[in-house]
Amino acid sequence: MGNLKARLLARIDREGPMNIAAYMSACLFDPTDGFYPTRDPLGSEGDFITAPEISQMFGELVGIFALQSWIDMGRPETVQLVELGPGRGVMMSDMMRAAHMDADFIKAINITMIEASPALEAVQAKNLAACPAPVTWATSLNDVEAGPSIIVGNEFLDCLPIRQFIRHDGAWHERMVMRDPDVEDGLIYARSATPEAGIDLLAFEGARDGDLAEYNPGLTQLCAQLHDRFAVHDGRALLIDYGPVSSEIGDTVQAISRHQKVDPLAEPGEADLTARVDFGALSRAAREQGLDHYGPVTQAAFLDALGIELRAAKLAQQSERHKPIIARQMHRLMDEHAMGSLFKVIALQSRGLPKPVGVAT
Ligand code: SAH
Asked: Residue 307: which of 54, 52, 58 has the closest Cα?
């Protein structure tokens, strides 16, 4: 049995069942045994692969989006370029290649990487060693210097810890993790005995007994932070993630280890735990905070609008050897049955900015 599992069992024995958010936080970010702090999980040899890791085109086009955002803000002398959950720092490094199209933009950029894992921070520092703009690290958006800001995040929202609720006798009861009474050192799900009050699950009106609803408190918190920043200075956030356009019933928590789906309760800390992002809930949270929001559009629509065809053609010209590689990358990013339509792109911004390129329909 892993270290973290032993400690979680002891904690449950001491304090009682834990909710899914507490379980997810421990699995992902426990400082000594959590999934992210103890490894670099990205890439083909790791546990999972993401769009920036598939192709340099992804980060380059996000870089063009950032450049256009800076122009939309009136080319401020300094702009805070912030990345949420930057993984290996590949997207930022590709963004910088596109940013080079305008020397004044490069001069204006101040980069902050918001990263919770010291292991990944070290990888980012290495990959950004030649970055043309200053880079600092923080663990919260609240610690980013004041001023106009462009904030980007790919596959960040899906690792924010969610809570789950099960409909029972006409009320919502929180789903918990407890010790399995029948299996030695096993974990199982359980429903809390008392119904939950005070959680906004209105989007799931009409749910029936046995249905499961998810609630992501991090989305509301992020929109509140964006509101605070964007109320003072221009700002735009671009968020790309996996999930439905509107709230849907069902358990979407998924555990991935070495590119395979595994049981989320089997080996805490050994697998990546994510939940689909409810873009309906994110849009509602943005509206409630008075942010302008555009999208969600599909990843394919976004990349297409930013000119992925042109970029791919240019890269394919470099050599015969490149052609099939670029074609494969295009397919993985754009295919309707894969990332192209499952991933969505949303932009949240301060009032009065022009419509964001690629996201406004
Ligand atoms: N954006 C990267 C990595 C995605 S994996 C890519 O597309 O390849 C998720 C990343 O978010 C990791 O870097 C993880 O450590 C980080 N992360 C997750 N939750 C976080 C939080 N609450 N605060 C800061 N970083 C977080």
From this structure: 58
